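User:
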Amino acid sequence: MFDLHASESIRYQGTEVPVFNILYLNNKGVLSAKRVAVYHINQDRNLAYGHQVTIASDSEPLSGEYPTFISLRIDRVIDVFDTHEEAEQAFEQAETLYADRIQQIKSDPGYHGRKLPPKDYSFKVCFTGFTKADKAELTELAESAGMKVVTGVSASLDFLCCGDNAGWSKMKKANELGVPLVRHEQIRLLVETGELPESYSEMS
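Assistant: Predicted structure:
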């Protein structure tokens, strides 16, 4: 496994965080070039959390100028680049230049999803718009993975998980604070695979 290196940084919630330009293969086999501002890396558990812009992809929607939250597996990073232009160029030739690395990732026994040990995640999550039973089940799932479940929306919240009856006030406040909105399917896959899908196309 190569060392992750960042050639630049940005300020996130008052702290300097590294920015990585990477080629990435997710557990659905989707190849993409990403620009990721990572605010937490756990090398021992092969996990990284942050915000990203998808530069190029086989099937993911491009993020454009609006970063989205991401949780990714370091062991599924194909390569790291100094600039996002280099990452985009490498994406165009990835099947040729990185055939061995792609095959190495796909041949890993845990490639298609491996439930990670408890207490891997330190996210703060709020659930809204769910029935009492569904909320209790999701809370148990999140807490079993080490997440802290809260009832209110604040700037320190990592994401707001919205059900079909999510309240507009919480969603509006989350948008104003830049807190990502996710669905329960994304939370479930995060716990199971270590990745938080950005879109429903990744979950199909």
